[in-house]
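for ur thesis appendix - G-patch domain-containing protein. copy paste whatever u need, i formatted it the way the template wanted (i think)
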Amino acid sequence: MSESEEEDYMSTKFLEEAASYEKKTQKETITYSQRRQRQLQEQKQKGYIKPREQLQREAREEGLKRNIGDTDNKGMKMLMKMGFKKGMTLGKSGGLEKPLDVELKHGREGLGMAEIRKRELEEEEEREMAKKPRIDPVEYRDMMANKAKENKLHRRCTAAAVIIERLDKENSNILWIFCPKEKEQDQQKQEELGEDFNNEEYTRTEQVELSDNEEEEEEELPYPKEEVEALLKLSLDQRLVQLVEYLREKHLYCFWCGAKYNDEQDLTDNCPGLEEDDH
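the 3d part is after this line
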């Protein structure tokens, strides 16, 4: 075949062939079960008879949407004879071009009760919102930051006190009062998990055991009461400083390094410093 006899690639013949091929492949990809299901669905729609209530509702909605000006009814003809023209409004000024929509009432409430109840609920929500204190975002962030810092210091004081208790296991030390008791450990675990201490997961048996052990935990400490009160009055920063200094001076242990040194010279040569920032 010569070049003159070749078909023009810009003609619609190529597009028609592609469309027919696409329809053919689409028919082939449909399985028998899918084709049968589609046929059953079409038969079901053809044989479906709408309920009487649905037919009445559709007829009513269609009638309400119909414009009387578009139909030949006696009322419109009478208005036209009295000088009314299509597109005019009823009334001297600011009249309505369309009649008010008819809203069917459902239920046994009186007219306007739904709007009254809705307004009362909105007013109640406004009163509840007014009772709640408004928190400044900056103050809230500062409060959460201080709380996180306090929790961090508390954990560090507890860790340092536990190390002191382990190193001073032969001799008692007043700094042991900062070691957490079992009840405090349970409370810390609950706070870390973000759960209430008396939640449903806490079994009744555990709660009874906890209440029985409260009196046992309130035993007298073997240290002078004045010294204990003085230590407990210290801030968390001051407590941590005292605990870290005691570990360093008494046991040559650096809390920030997490290591115990052989002697003072070893501590001086290998430990960066006394503060956390030095590490």
